[in-house]
Amino acid sequence: MTFEIKTYYRKEDLPPLEDVNFFHYASSFDWYDAIPAYTPLMIVAFDAEEKPVAAMFAVIARMNRLFAGSFFKRCFIQQEPAFFDKNVPQIELFHQLISHLVQEVEDKVFFIRYEGLSSAIFGYKGFRENNFYYAKWIGVRNSLQRKRKIWDQLSASRKNQVNKAIKKGVVIEELLSENDLPEIYDLIRKANFQKIHQRFPPFRYFENFYHHYIKEGKGKVLLARYHGKIIGGIILGFEKQRATAYSLYYWGKTKLYKFLHPTVFSIFSAMQMSEKEGFQYFDFLDTGFLNDVAGRTRFLLQFGGKQRATRQWYRFNWRLINFFAKKLYG
To answer: 260-281, pLDDT tens digit by residue?
Structure first.
């Protein structure tokens, strides 16, 4: 089955699209609005009746402030595309979408990375035929539908840490005003600078999220405060269609307030809030390489979630480099 596929670089040119997958909302354009380092794009597939049946959002990021050539640009995509018709052959359609994406950006970027897939086998043929190679990753997700409440799913050490934070007077609150954004941005930048694999987003990125996601009910920021000071927090994205809350960023002043466990308390509070608001899943997305069960993956599994095998797919647009990368990793 053949679909007509078009690329859009401006939100106002898009056809009406339903919010199905959080990472492929039309409002993703608003998230990256007025940020020179990012070029967002949406690839939309239409059926014979010119009705949108799928959409895939991608962003081209410039990795260097001084140079603007394709060598200094990367293309990032997260999770499966949004499918608007359950009857379309998703694997076949994805093959056409990923092929179109490669043709669209291969002369504009040096590298393409596709991450966050819920299944290790999704789109395998499409990726392989477009010369991608992969690394095995782990994703962690909590089910909020269990009879056991979130508290009962925590490990003993996590329960002790949450109790200590509460006894010491740590409280959680929701970000309701953009006046706290500069302080939050500075805290995230300092706490997570070495943990973010891409270029750290500018302040406008978080400002856009507040105006187009938090104020529209598509996300929240929870803050852990101690004696009035922000010592940790977590940024959440909401996908009502699949009743999933996504952990986008979390941080804490773990050196200065180590014994208050701000990161643990923020994550637990976010999971508890998501449970109360009726979400069925709490997703931490990709957490680490498959064979790396320590570090971040082990930390998150102690909140009671389950790990799942997935893949991150990569493609260098310089053929020789991609050839050797496929030989090495494929």
So the answer is: 999 999 999 999 999 999 999 9
